[in-house]
Amino acid sequence: MFILAKCSQSSISIPPSVINFLKKQAELLGVPIEDIVLERLLVDLDPEDKAKEYISVASSLLEQAKIELKRGDLRQASEKIWDAIALSVKAFAYKHDKLRLSSHGELWEYKDKLVKVFGEWVRECWNAGVHMHVNFYEGWATKSDIIDAIKKAERLVEAIRSKILTKTEEDST
Predict the structure, then answer these.
(1) How far apart are CA 110 and CA 90, in angstroms?
(2) What is the mean pLDDT of the chain?
(3) How far apart are CA 7 and CA 159, in angstroms?
(4) How many domains does the chain have?
């Protein structure tokens, strides 16, 4: 079983067959599995609330990447970095354009909008994320590459978070 969520009163477990289905859907669409799960769970939320949830998950994924890095699992750390970057881009699209990005191609295209909003440094963050996604499959990146990508991803996630959350919401996270 895969534990989806745990809170003080209960946890949600997902059977392996469902996880396999979700993984296949994510691979077909070229998106993180977290995106597939979030989209299904948040179907009734308005785009602004979806944006907040997406950026929250992006932040959590970066923390998980750091844990994977400490464990020495560079591939898992890499994929978490990519997922955080992809979900933060999607969060911005939901918040500012009420737009759901559902493929790698749409993410690549929308990234250019972020470059216009934030600056050229976004392109470096994006490229680091793409390299991390490749590393998940190829396993060629070094620990230093992962550390550098985490720093770049953190910058992007925080910049997008600041555009999505109000000051009060930022202070409470």
Answers:
(1) 9
(2) 89
(3) 29
(4) 1
